[in-house]
Amino acid sequence: MKLVIEKVSKLYGSFSALSNIEVSLDNGVYGLLGPNGAGKTTLMRIMTDLLKPSGGRVLLDGVDISVLGAEFRRRLGYLPQDFGFYPNYTAEQFLMYIARLKGLGKAEAKRQTAELLEMVGLAEKRGQQMKALSGGQRQRVGIAQALLGDPDILVLDEPTAGLDPEERIRFRGIISNLSRQKTVLLSTHIVSDLEAVAHEIILLKKGVIIDVEKPHELLRKIEGKVFSLTVPVEKEFEFASKYRCSNIMSEGASVVLRIVSDEKPHETAIPMAPNMEDLYVYYFK
Amino acid sequence: MTSEIKRYAAKALYWMILATALVARGFLAYFDFKEFKYEPDVYLDLAADYWNKAGSLSLAILILIVLIHQFSIDKETGADTVIHTARYGRRRLYLERLGAGVVMTVFSVAILGLGNYVISYFMSPVGVHMRNVLAPYIESTLITLVGGVGFFLAASFVCDVVANHPAAICICGFPYVFSYLVYSMEVNKNLKPFDLVWFLKYGTFTELVRGRWITTVPVFWCIWYPMLIIGLFALSIYKRKERKQL
């Protein structure tokens, strides 16, 4: 299975939200990384056939997804950024309803609903109304509904938003298990999640793809550009405003800055191994 | 379609409105009985005239408050994106919701009609039975059924287009209610065909839901109502295509 985004653009009036996006997705987890307003959600909405592109098209095995229609949606699981639900439905009722809309028979819908509620750790909350669930629990119902019907393509927009660290680890485990036989595209601001699960990362900035690489390849590109610099507290502002900092840590009378820079910021600066947060800061700050 | 009918049936508001309408009919029948105890014909005429006021208003409230809400609730709750990316979350769901709404409209007419019959029977003066006026009552009920289904379809298309339940209630509710008010207006006495008020009196489903055929220029209305429904359906389809919901 191959999902190809072919020269996709999206204009809102004269504003270009996406410009000439070209990327090809096979089985595996793809992370979509970019700051707010980069066009991540727009791209995901186009990929899920919720939004018509101004130019270009999305192809699944060579066929335009808008032509495939219901056949494409049969293979799709989608978790939107602002996941909405029927507040008076219980978690189980909501999943059963979505399962029926996905074309599952009653028995299969029931089986998958029970299995997914167990998987996301909500088996005991199955009878609770959605409006009574916490933000993180609702998000887990959102993840479960995306997985209903065992879709080949999973598009997850900010799936870990609102999840606590334990839930995020559980989510990563779920995605890792699924990645072998599915195409998963996920966007998140929590870059450590991407580092843990993504096979490739798509960097999106102002509606343009600036790079598509494996995480370690991207990190390799900024090797030698990350430094740790300890300065007195009164010098913090000077360095923090001059350089891109991925972390600032207070240590008594001094401050340890983690600086991402093409040149060494100071002779006492110590080169560090880059991580994904450094990468984010390097490309987007 | 069964799951959509179940969703309607699970709405407490639907049953509350239905129960309130029947209780209200009970009160009216009680006072009619007290007033016309010795004039059973009048009592019966009022019972058979149920759809003219209380019945048609109850049905319109059910349609506008409960039945058409299904066409905007996804947008209101934000569940629309999840639903529209499901395999059958577009065209099929739309048609199923329309079908379920029609079934519920028919069911509502049946329950209200039957409820009125039973209430009128039990409240009636001794020895009087509604069978004396059964034929006109059944006829008006059938007209209400036709009008009710038409009104539901038109209102649900409007709700689908505007994707806003309160706005749809206003757009469909005001013209509907205006038709009742025309009868108490001075202008009603000299109403001429194709005047604006004439149009508003007969052209908003109200007359049909009140259980009355429109006898003035009937040919025009035979064309108008199907065209109105088809036109609104076409608009709804157009908007859905534009929003990629079909």
Question: How would you describe what is shown here?
Answer:
- The complex is a heterodimer of chains A (285) and B (246).
- Chain A is an alpha/beta fold and 285 residues long.
- Chain A is 35% helix and 30% strand.
- Chain A has eleven helices and 14 strands.
- Chain A has helices at residues 40-47, 65-68, 70-74, 91-101, 106-119, 135-147, 165-178, 191-197, 215-221, 236-242, 276-284, and strands at residues 3-12, 15-25, 28-33, 55-60, 63-64, 76-79, 153-157, 183-187, 200-205, 208-213, 226-232, 244-251, 254-260, 270-271.
- Chain A has a six-stranded mixed beta sheet with strand order 6-7-8-3-9-10, sandwiched between helices. In chain A, strands 2-1-4-5 form a four-stranded antiparallel beta sheet. Chain A has a four-stranded antiparallel beta sheet with strand order 12-13-11-14.
- In chain A, a hairpin with a 2-residue loop joins strand 4 (55-60) and strand 5 (63-64).
- Chain A is globular and about 70 Å long.
- Chain A starts with a strand and ends with a helix.
- The relative contact order of chain A is 0.14.
- Chain B has twelve helices and no strands.
- In chain B, helix 4 (54-66) runs antiparallel to helix 7.
- The mean pLDDT of chain B is 91.
- Chain B has one domain (2-242).
- Chain B is globular and about 65 Å long.
- Chain B has 246 residues and is mostly helical.
- Classes of the chains: A alpha/beta (285), B mainly alpha (246).
- Chains A and B meet through helix 3, strand 6 and helix 4 of A and helix 5, helix 6 and helix 7 of B.
Say which CATH homologous superfamily of the largest domain in chain A is assigned: P-loop containing nucleotide triphosphate hydrolases
Major β-sheet of chain B, in short? none
What would you call the quaternary organization?
A: heterodimer
Q: What number is the mean pLDDT of chain B?
A: 91
User: What is the overall silhouette of chain B?
Assistant: globular
Spatial gap, N to C terminus of chain A: 35 Å
The largest beta-sheet of chain A arranges its strands as 6-7-8-3-9-10
Helix content of chain B: over 70%
The counted number of beta strands of chain A is 14
Largest interface: A-B, 30 and 21 residues
When the domains of chain B are counted, the total is 1
The count of β-strands of chain B is 0
Structural class of chain A: alpha/beta
